[in-house]
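Any chance you could type out a protein's amino acid sequence plus the matching backbone structure tokens because I've never seen that pairing?

——
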Amino acid sequence: MSNPENAQDAMLGNEPAVEPVVEPTAEQHTDTLPSIEEQFRALELKAAEHYDAWLRAKAEGENIRRRAQDDISKAHKFAVEKFAGELLAVKDSLEAALAVQEQTVDSFKSGVELTLKQLVSAFDKNALNEVNPAGEKFDPHKHQAIGMVDSEQEANTVVTVLQKGYMIADRVLRPALVMVAKGK
């Protein structure tokens, strides 16, 4: 059954106002919404923009990689430049010593000593350190044992250094060639 209030409204002719539902026409739809073709074109443009941006980013990445490789190559090529500059003074001293016509043993010896000081100075400036382990405990990372000898020293102690070793910073350039004490 119906509601009594609705019945009264119906008798009095007071019907509730109902708005008619109006369906939009096809023309109204096309005015407010873009067509599929327009949407497709817009998406194609956006895709082209993204593709272009991707290509640019890829090219920039390649350029950065190439520049980094060039920098590394130059660093390798010119890494010894400072050290080589230091060695030029040593070479000049040796050439000057050889150019002297009348040399005595003492003058020759003092010239060689000065040249050795220049070389040691160049080594020091470039973190090239001498390893002279006489009397130290044998370290296989810095020393190369040539043989073992009887000695009064403790076992595995360096007794004789046959050839000094060298290190650049903390890396062994050449291990010291040593003779090591045998166990007692």
